[in-house]
Amino acid sequence: METALRAAINKLEELGARVEWEVSLPHTPYALAAYYIIAPSEAMANLARYDGVKYGFSYTDTDSMWEALEKTRQFGFGDEVKRRIMLGTYALSAGYYDAWYLKAQKVRTLIRQEFD
C-alpha cells in the first residue's frame, strides 16, 4: 500500500502538483488492546438476553428452570463465545469498569479523532 501511495504521489508531482502530507497516528498501536476490552464487553451485554426463555437456544430436558438456564448457557454458546462473555463481564464489573472499559473507550475516541 505504501509503495502504491508513494508511486501515485511521485506521478502527481511529475505532473506539476505539489503534495504535502504528514500522517501521525500515535494511538493506533493501542487499537487491538482497546478492541479486546470493548468488543467482549459489548458482546456480553448483547448476549445476556439469550437465556433460552425468550431468545436463543433452549435446553429443555431438565427438572428445574435453573437447571434449564444453566444448560442453555452451557450448551448454547461455543467456547470462544463463553470466553468473550467472561472477559466482557470482567471488564464491566464494578472494580474494573474505570480501569479497563473506560480507558479502552478513551483510546477508541483518540484513534477515531486521528482519522478525522
UniProtKB/TrEMBL annotation:
What's one GO MF term for it? catalytic activity
Matching entries from InterPro entries are given as: Amidase (IPR000120), Amidase_dom (IPR023631), AS_sf (IPR036928)
Q: Which residues form the Amidase domain?
A: 3-116
Name the Gene3D superfamilies for this protein: Amidase signature (AS) domain
Q: Which PANTHER family match?
A: GLUTAMYL-TRNA(GLN) AMIDOTRANSFERASE SUBUNIT A (PTHR11895:SF151), TRANSAMIDASE (PTHR11895)
In its UniProt entry, what is this protein called?
Answer: Amidase domain-containing protein
Q: Which organism is it from?
A: marine sediment metagenome
